[in-house]
Amino acid sequence: MKNSSKPFENQADIIDKTKQKIRHEIWNLLEQRQVALFPKPVIGRIPNFKGAVEAAKKLRASRQFDQASIVKVNPDSPQKAVRENVLQDGKTLIMPTPRIKHGFLMVKPGKLSHLQIAEAATIAGAFKHGEKI
C-alpha cells in the first residue's frame, strides 16, 4: 500500500492540513445541527453560533477576565458579546481590524454611554470610538 503523503512533508504542512480538516468537520457539524447563525455560509470564517452569548457570559465569570484590564478580542460575530462585556466592565478593548488590514484598534470605555458601548463593540463602531494602534 502506497503512502499518499509526500516523503518530505514537513510538520507545519501536516499541522495545517489537520487544522483545515478539523475546521471543515466543525463547519459541517454546525450546519447539520442547525446551530450556525448569520453570517452564512460558515465555511471559511469563525462562525457565529447559538450559544455564543452564553460562552461570553462564562468567559466574563472567569478569574482571568475579572483580573484583566486590557482584553484583546477578535472582530468576528460570535465574539461581539465578549467585546461588549469588556467595555461594559470598564476594560480597554484591543481589536484587530478585519484581516488586520489596518492594524489594531484600541477602545477605552471611559466616557462611552451604554448605547455607545454597544456601537463600539461592532467593527464600524470600534473605528468610530477607538484609535488605531
TrEMBL record:
InterPro entries from the UniProt entry: FTHF_cligase (IPR002698), NagB/RpiA_transferase-like (IPR037171)
Gene Ontology, cellular component aspect: cytoplasm
Keyword annotations: Ligase
SUPFAM superfamilies tied to this protein: NagB/RpiA/CoA transferase-like (SSF100950)
GO molecular-function terms, A-Z: ligase activity
Protein name in UniProt: 5-formyltetrahydrofolate cyclo-ligase
